[in-house]
Specification:
The structure holds 2 protein chains of 2 kinds. Chain A is built from 1 helix and 6 strands. Chain A is mainly beta. Chain A is globular, with a radius of gyration of 15 Å. Chain B has 7 domains: 159 residues, Ubiquitin-like (UB roll), CATH 3.10.20; 197 residues, FAD/NAD(P)-binding domain, CATH 3.50.50.60; 127 residues, 3-Layer(bba) Sandwich (FAD/NAD(P)-binding domain), CATH 3.50.50.60; 73 residues, Arc Repressor Mutant, subunit A (Orthogonal Bundle), CATH 1.10.10; 146 residues, Gyrase A, domain 2 (2-Layer Sandwich); 87 residues, 2-Layer Sandwich (Alpha-Beta Plaits); 98 residues, Elongation Factor Tu (Ef-tu), domain 3. In chain B, a hairpin with a 2-residue loop joins strand 37 and strand 38. Classes of the chains: A mainly beta, B alpha+beta. Chains A and B meet through helix 1 of A and helix 20 and helix 24 of B.
């Protein structure tokens, strides 16, 4: 059972207090109507499934009810950092910043 | 028969406390301090069960968790049945009732055994797969009988009378195993002041020291154990857990310990302190700073022909029975070994006054201290030899010892049959690496000790290995290694351990073992008598060779094909031998072969322990509204809606569901009814940007909703599919009350929070769940205004308080918010009061309603009434693939709202704009008495051949007392353009219900009744 540091509560708490909420840093396009169906489909349905570091959104559901981000290793399950919404991860895959091309109309 | 194998002295048993127990219906006696296995051996019980596949007689082999055969059913009553108990780990108590789990009609006269003998050669690995594959429809039938024949215990049919606990623990150092290494580690860490938990699976601490012939400080080792345990007990931060198996090593140094608190006292837990029931088992959920793994090692048996006949045992187990339990499981011993340590068994046997026929040592010239001691006591030691075959049916009668060449796998002398009744074998020691592998760490092979030790792994376990598990076997080294590990663990968790004095051990010469797993036989493995590798699953050396010949080369494939290690013992005894045989068969090394993965749990855990207190009425919370007591008193039948218990209908005497619902429906349509609607989710939304937020999460527009008004809204996900609905009222310009579906309350709140916290944190808005704070009672029906007017100071004038508005005032003397909204299509008032006033208000409404024949109604009537009006229930009429347009609710979509609200882009995808999407329509069965089953699939042409083209399904379906005919709602492909056409529901019984596609609004289509 994971031991997760809630950046809002400032404490290590057990996994059962949290909900995983999928991949982090997927910004909603500022002008969805400018997206093609394919771009919108990408935003909506397609997620990374990395072997290695993964930036994830978590909710401290049975705690402060706040969302936050975590950088977790998908093989070891090690959580290298947790950080608040709006902050950038300090631990990233070395050289692996394979950013997807920004869709048209997506200015986020 | 009274304890024929009990030695006259010795052992840690209490001979003043005889205990009576039964096994397979026979009554026996043992002593306090016995395990069930020790007591059975003391009574000369040779056959303990029948084997899984061949039904061969089997006896006790080991003395611990690795026991493959003595896996018994325990319990005298149905509710106390426990399957798969290892007799070697079950303490004997008075009145214990045990039985074999297989063997029919009995273990001594087994019909399957004959089949096994005759059919043995015809039952290679994969036999079941190969034989019972066809026809596949019969597999279920075969399986039932195969499982019964194989027999591995059965679950009780009645409820467990005991309680079980879970407990959360935090410690600096968790020491796993209280043998010499674990005790030393716990002592070192405990003295530093660190919080230490010491857990051991046995009845008492000490591990191998409880039966070793070795001394510490010149005294029996058990005295050192007592001294250490006494000191540990004085340390306030040290928790001692005997009878506690560390079963799982999970992420982030989280471990689970299964503590059996009263299994040694009886089959149910006796009353504890203050005569209160006490938990029989306790699962400790431990977050440990550091783990000292001192789990020890399991002895490996040698794999020789007929090594499964009762009377073949592990050498170490024989010593344990002799020295710890005062039981000699035989008279005449032949010992087969490849190492020095097994010679201790010969010495223990001699000390008990029994005969050692011979020792067969595979090594050519062993000269260790124990070897010489055995020689000096006149025992025949045959070097370069091994036991290669055994004779006997239900008990060993003789063993054939011959010279072997273990490298060339050849028998080099004709050998001789030696009369004996016990063959003890030792093929070396396998460190108990299981827990170290639970997070995926691969064990590493060490050629110097011919064993796998825990690997460094992936560094995920903050773990220090100590003692035999670490490949350290000499007693003095084991204790030093344990002490060192304890010091290190304490230091790594911020404590300073002081140097300690280690006990003095005996000096002696110990020589290395040689590699020997399967013992050669004159015949090739496939033709030799069976050489068993995994006794619990009847896997033989020949079977493993066959698997590799048939192309199963990966260790995981060999395992699955042969079932090696698949039993409840997880192959503790046989896995390494199996790997070695597979590796040799393929001409590769053991490390090249690798090991299979070990998973939690290390030993079987009862479901009671897994469930803990999460059973019975504590399994799931139940939620009741404030009016629950009234509902119960008035005979309501209840329906589960999420965790809520909602009144389903209120039957009068003699009424069934249909009669009650018909009466309740007519009462609402003709006079007035009352519904407890408290379970609807309520979210209080405040802040200057509340209105803008609503604009973004609802499909319709909220900008112009005035204070005092309410509006229905649909909520979609980004994909454009409806996921919740409800009415939201404007309480003040920056204050709204949102209602959600009963089941969606928590989900919607989380959804709002997600968007507020991650996408639009700049919006000033706050959300608070007030579902439980407000109770809601709905008065619905033409007489609702007259009724409510009698108990409220609110002016109910139809122009002053019109449809879709709300007012504040007093109802039944209590502050209330009254909403004029309707889910029935009738004139309705939803009265909201603080929950703690609700019961009183409800009772006053009932009292005032008597003259109007006010009728309480439940969820079923609510469903019928709303369906007559074509009002949807999200989750019943929708299924996450339905857009507002599919529901013919395009009127609820704000197509010109400036902000691209959630769902707008999604519902404009190409696929969502198709005209032949499934759309919500009404269905009117041609036969007005036939009610379509909900979920029934619909077709346009009932005469087409199967599989038919399905065009939709029925989502809601009822009999309407108001309209006098059945009706339904359904999604039908392109249904909105098919009004008046026919659809057909072919049912499983062969009948077909025909229906006409009509508008989903059946009753009062203009909405005149609710707007009066």
């Amino acid at each position: 059972m994971l031991h997760i540091f809630c950046p809002h509560c400032g404490e290590l708490r057990s996994e059962e207090e949290f909900h995983a909420a999928g991949q982090a840093h997927i910004a909603r396009p500022l002008d969805p109507n400018a997206c093609t169906d394919e771009e919108w489909g990408d935003y909506l349905f397609f997620r990374d499934n990395p072997r290695g570091l993964h930036h994830e959104l978590w909710l401290h559901a049975a705690g402060c009810r706040k969302y936050f981000n975590a950088t977790r290793h998908t093989i070891s399950y090690e959580i290298l950092e947790t950080y608040k919404i709006g902050e950038k991860p300090s631990v990233t895959e070395a050289g692996g910043s394979e950013k997807k091309p920004v869709a048209k109309g997506v200015t986020a | 028969m009274s304890q024929v194998n009990r030695l006259s002295r010795g052992g840690r048993i209490d001979r003043s406390q005889p205990l009576t127990f039964t096994f397979n219906g026979e009554t026996y006696q043992g002593y306090a301090g016995d395990t069930l296995a020790a007591a059975l051996l003391a009574n000369g019980v040779d056959v303990i069960g029948r084997s899984f596949k061949y039904s061969r007689p089997r006896g006790i082999v080991a003395a611990g968790a690795e026991e493959p055969n003595a896996v018994l059913q325990i319990g005298s009553r149905e509710e106390t049945q426990i399957p798969n108990v290892r007799a070697t780990q079950q303490a004997l108590y008075s009145g214990l009732v045990a039985a074999s789990t297989n063997g029919w009609p009995s273990v001594n006269n087994d019909l399957m055994g004959i089949l096994g003998k005759v059919g043995g050669k015809m039952m290679p690995p994969g036999f079941y797969y190969k034989t019972f594959m066809y026809p596949s429809s019969l597999w279920m039938t075969y399986e039932k009988y195969i499982r019964k024949a194989a027999g591995l215990g059965r679950a009780p049919l009645e409820n467990d009378p005991d309680i079980y606990d879970h407990i959360n623990q935090h410690c600096d150092v968790l020491v796993i195993g209280a043998g010499p290494a674990g005790l030393a580690a716990a002592l070192a860490a405990g003295r530093s002041g660190a919080r230490v938990i010491l857990a051991d699976e046995q009845e008492e601490f000490g591990g191998s020291l409880l039966d070793t012939r070795e001394t510490l400080d010149g005294k029996p080792a058990a005295e050192w154990v007592a001294k250490v345990v006494a000191e540990l007990k004085t340390l306030p931060e040290v928790t001692l857990l005997p009878r506690a198996t560390v079963n799982g090593y999970h992420d982030h140094n989280f471990l689970t310990i299964h503590e059996r608190r009263t299994d040694h006292l009886g089959e149910t837990a006796p009353l504890g302190a203050f005569s209160a029931p006490q938990a029989r088992h306790r699962v400790h959920r431990v977050r440990a700073g550091r783990v000292v793994l001192a789990a020890g090692a399991h002895e490996r048996p040698l794999v020789y022909a007929n090594n499964d006949v009762p009377g073949n045992m592990l050498a170490g187990a024989v010593s344990t029975y002799v020295r710890r339990y005062g039981v000699a499981p035989g008279k005449k011993l032949v010992l087969a070994t490849n190492n020095d340590y097994a010679y201790r068994t010969a010495l223990d046997w001699l000390d008990a006054g029994l005969q050692v026929v011979a020792v067969a040592d595979a090594r050519s010239n062993p000269r260790g201290s124990w070897v010489e001691e055995v020689r000096s006591r006149g025992v025949r030691v045959l070097t370069g030899s091994s036991v290669i075959d055994v004779r006997g049916g239900k008990r060993v009668e003789a063993a054939r010892v011959a010279a072997i060449d273990p490298v060339a796998m050849k028998v080099t002398s004709p050998g001789e049959w030696l009369d004996c009744d016990l063959v003890a074998s030792s093929g070396g020691y396998s460190p108990v690496v299981h827990l170290a592998s639970h997070l995926g760490g691969r064990p590493e092979w060490r050629e110097d000790i011919l064993a796998f030790v825990p690997g460094e792994g992936n560094g995920l376990q903050k773990r220090i290995d100590a003692g035999a598990v670490n490949g350290v076997f000499k007693l003095g080294d084991v204790i030093a290694n344990g002490f060192e590990a304890g010091v290190k663990a304490a230091a790594e968790t911020g404590f300073k351990a002081t140097a300690g004095d280690l006990p003095r051990t005996e000096k002696r010469v110990e020589e290395a073992a040689i590699a020997l797993f399967q013992v050669p036989h004159e015949k090739p493995t496939a033709r030799a008598p069976k050489q068993f590798v995994d006794l619990q699953n009847d896997v033989t050396a020949a079977g493993i060779e066959l698997a590799t010949r048939e192309g199963f080369e990966s260790v995981e494939h060999v395992k699955r094909y042969t079932a090696l290690g698949f039993g409840t013992d997880q192959g503790k005894l046989g896995n390494i031998n199996g790997l070695a045989i597979a590796a040799r068969s393929m001409g590769i090394s053991i490390p090249q072969m690798g090991t299979t993965m070990f998973r939690p749990n290390y030993t079987p855990v009862t479901f009671g322990a897994v469930a803990g207190r999460h059973c019975g009425h504590l399994f799931e919370p139940k939620r009741y509204t404030a009016m629950q007591a009234w509902h119960v008193a008035n005979g309501a039948e209840f329906e589960d809606v999420g965790q809520w218990k909602r009144p389903w209908y209120f039957p009068k005497k003699g009424e069934d569901l249909h009669a009650a619902v018909a009466r309740e429906c007519l009462a609402v349509r003709n006079s007035v009814g009352i519904l407890d609607a408290s379970t609807l989710g309520k979210i209080d939304i405040q802040g200057p940007d509340a209105r803008e937020f609503l604009n973004r999460v609802y499909t319709n527009a909220w900008t112009k909703l005035d204070v005092g008004k309410a509006r229905y809204g649909l909520m979609c996900k980004e994909d454009g599919m409806v996921f919740d609905d409800g009415v939201t009222a404007c309480l003040a310009d920056n204050h709204f009350l949102m209602t959600t579906t009963t089941g969606g309350a928590a989900r919607v709140l989380q959804w709002l929070e997600l968007y507020h916290q991650t996408e639009w944190p700049e919006l000033k808005v706050y959300f608070t769940s007030v579902t439980d704070h407000w109770a809601t009672m709905t008065l619905s029906g033409p007489n609702s205004r007259k009724l409510l007017a009698e108990v409220t100071d609110i002016d109910l004038d139809k122009d002053g308080f019109p449809f879709m508005t709300w007012k504040e005032g007093n109802v039944a003397g209590v502050p209330a918010r009254v909403f004029r909204i309707s889910f029935t299509g009738e004139l309705s008032y939803e009265v909201n009061v603080q929950a703690d006033y609700a019961l009183g208000v409800w009772e006053k409404l009932i009292e005032a309603g008597k003259k109007y024949d006010l009728t309480p109604y439940g969820t079923e009537t609510m469903h019928v009434l709303r369906a007559e009006k074509g009002f949807i229930i999200v989750g019943q009429d929708t299924d996450a693939s339905v857009t507002p347009d599919d529901l013919n609710m395009g009127w609820c979509v704000g197509r010109t709202k400036p902000f691209s609200w959630i769902g707008w882009r999604g519902m404009n995808r190409e696929d969502c704009l198709r005209e032949d999407r499934k759309q919500l329509v009404g269905l009117k069965p041609i036969d007005p008495l036939k009610v379509l089953p909900e979920g029934a699939q619909l077709v346009f042409d009932p005469k087409q051949s199967i599989p038919m083209t399905m065009v939709g399904h029925v989502t809601s379906s009822y009999m309407s007392a108001t309209m006098g005919h059945s009706f339904a709602m359904a999604v039908v492909k392109g249904g909105l353009k098919r009004m008046g056409e026919r659809v057909f529901a072919p049912l499983a019984d062969g009948s077909v219900i025909e229906a006409e596609i009509v508008s989903s609004v059946f009753y009062d289509p203009k909405g005149e009744r609710q707007n009066v």
